[in-house]
Design brief:
Elements lengths: L2 E6 L4 H12 L3 E11 L12 H11 L3 E6 L5 H17 L4 E3 L6 H11 L5 E3 L7 H10 L3 E7 L15 H6 L13 E7 L9 E9 L2 E8 H17 L6
Length: 243
């Protein structure tokens, strides 16, 4: 009987690559994506990915998405309570495991294992201890298209916010920065790759500084077109439009 796996989904490259690797395992059936969203702003925390893009990712992956809305700010107590609810829901749908895209931070891995103890779901770490330099290059060569949506300016230049995660980017990274950003140097949003049956279309919008980090707003092209159409209609209706 295959493992029925829920995948913790951040919208970034590591969770997307985890999906790709899980699907290569004949003993695994990925049954859904699980993501936490700041309910005030409808965005994934730190990645700052719009919920609309996460929903589009789930459609492109052909998987149901379970969204866990969290208040902002959010205490550990509230976070853990909401996650327990998601675990219970997963058990009801027949899930047996939850997978995470962690790479090498033992404290994070240990925390996840501890939180799942006695829950009925087992943890999986499909890319654990992958060497991050060759992993990053392998993702790019496989066609993963990723944009940096958040950077820590103490570790990488603020100008990297909104950049594409490609070989040129990796070549320019400071030597003390992990190529996959596993230490929190940057966060990403995936737009295309072998885990999606269709690419997503988005443009980099405003880049803002908030709470010591730089965030690039990745805007779905459909939302941009809707805004432009609305602006055009407004202009056409205005009695002060140019003739």
């Amino acid at each position: 009987m295959p493992k029925r796996v829920l995948l913790s989904w951040s919208s970034g490259k590591d969770s997307a690559w985890s999906l790709h690797m899980l699907r290569k395992d004949p003993d695994v059936e990925v049954v859904g994506l699980l993501t936490t969203v700041n309910e005030t702003h409808a965005r994934v925390a730190m990645h700052s990915t719009r919920l609309a893009l996460v929903e589009a990712q789930a459609r492109a992956a052909g998987l149901p998405l379970r969204v866990i809305p969290l208040p902002w700010p959010c205490s550990n107590e509230v976070y853990e309570r909401e996650m327990r609810g998601a675990v219970d829901d997963g058990l009801k749908t027949g899930a047996t495991h939850i997978a995470f895209g962690d790479l090498f931070l033992d404290d994070i891995r240990d925390y996840r294992i501890k939180q799942l103890e006695g829950s009925g779901l087992e943890p999986l770490f499909p890319i654990w201890h992958e060497r991050t330099e060759p992993l990053a290059r392998r993702m790019i060569d496989a066609g993963v298209v990723t944009v940096l949506t958040c950077v820590d300016p103490r570790k990488v230049p603020p100008s990297f916010a909104g950049r594409t995660f490609d070989h040129a980017f990796l070549d320019e990274l400071p030597r003390d920065v992990d190529p996959c950003g596993e230490n929190g140097e940057f966060h990403t949003c995936v737009l295309a790759g072998p885990m999606f049956h269709d690419p997503l279309h988005a443009e980099v919008g405003d880049v803002v500084e908030r709470d010591g980090f730089y965030f690039a707003d990745l805007v779905p092209v459909a939302a941009i077109l809707d805004t432009r159409r609305a602006a055009n209609v407004s202009t056409q209706r205005s009695p002060y439009r140019r003739r």
